[in-house]
Amino acid sequence: MTASKQAKSSLLRNKVYMRVYGAYTAAAFGDWFDILAIQVLVGYRWQASPLMLALLPIANALPSILLGSVAGVAADRLNKLKLMRICDLFTAALTLFILLAPNMVWLFPILIVRAAISTLNVPAQQALTRSIVREEQLLQATSLNGIVNQGSKIGGPLLGGLALSFLSPQWCIVLNACFRLSSYLLLWSVGKEAVNSVEEGEKTSKSAEKQKESLSIIWKEGWSFIIRSRLLLSSMIFGLIGALAIQMIDFQFTSLFRELAPDQESLLGWMVAASGAGAIIIILIINKMNREVRYGWRLGSGYALIGVSIGGLGLLPQDGSVLAVLILGFVLGIGNGIYMVTFNYCLQKETPPDLIGRVFGIQSTILGVVMIVAPLLGGLTVQAVGPARTFLSFGLVILVIGLFGILFGKLLWPASKTRNGDSASGQVKELV
């Protein structure tokens, strides 16, 4: 326990990590102002159809398909800090351009270009985190990143809903641009020598031939490693199947809430806030646990809880209890938090440092493909049978997927001896 506390304290004293962590926090909070504002603008103000709502995630996913793997290679080979700075500057500028969009036809191209730039940010941030923290601090860093991601779902929608009570969605979009500029300034404050010293250490361990390899060869190495790793391959396939079902309804919450509470634009924000509260609480609990990480149990239970909450939302009557919405949102967050931390930890833990960017880039590409096909099918389904029945049906599907992961966890994720986030104590844990 003492070693665990010392590792955590040491991580918090890591000035480079804390500034990168602060920049990530600013960007994550800003994104949720933006997401909520665009959904309200498109769903409630422009009264977009379910099919048009389905095009929003496609606009964000298309660049991931085209550039995801290339972005992962770039994160491994180029200066990660500079990449993140460039992403923040251009994202802030394009966010302001959204204010000039009069309708969906103008909005989509801006979102696509902005998403193309942001594609570089995720693998760069993950690779940089892996470079600036020690092995025994990896689970702590992964959990802290997860806390920011879910914590922004509490503060972002709450603050965004409050802003929408007095201001227009356009002002929330301006706030996102301000958060991105703050993220850029934090990254700019990181001393060049601090990150360069880390990256120089990584470069010296690579051969000259490795540096001259083509992008296509390096990209293939990432795929080859995933295929050879039973744990990573099972995690990718399991995540892909679950994501297919989840993304069918992920951007149809606006369609559902327009029926449940047509006069309460803020209810969607409250539900997302409750989801964020559940996620951050479970992430804090996971961060304190000293037991072994069981991939099958955690990934499966995460999906199962997500399925229960989504199906429950589909059973709610019009103008029903707000408390029921909040409870289901809270359960949704618990499931999402369990799955997210376990999946990201698996990818980082089971991947060598020099392949982190490529693996996360490939994962981003796979998710991008899902987000092209699934939202369209989901939009068509909602238009055909209605949002309530769609949510109930896919909630049951996700529940079954989660139960499958729990029951067959040992088969999908064979036992592997490794160390978890408390490895500083010297105790070897079993990953199942």
Automatic annotation (TrEMBL):
The chain crosses the membrane at residues 21-42, 54-75, 87-112, 158-179, 231-249, 269-287, 299-316, 322-347, 359-385, 391-413. It is a multi-pass membrane protein. PROSITE patterns: MFS. One of its GO terms (molecular function) is transmembrane transporter activity. Its main location: membrane. Residues 231-432 form the Major facilitator superfamily (MFS) profile domain. The keyword Cell division does not apply. Keywords: Cell membrane, Membrane, Transmembrane, Transmembrane helix, Transport. GO terms for cellular component: plasma membrane. The keyword Transcription regulation does not apply. InterPro entries: MFS (IPR011701), MFS_dom (IPR020846), MFS_trans_sf (IPR036259). It is found in: Cell membrane. This is MFS family permease. It comes from Fontibacillus solani.
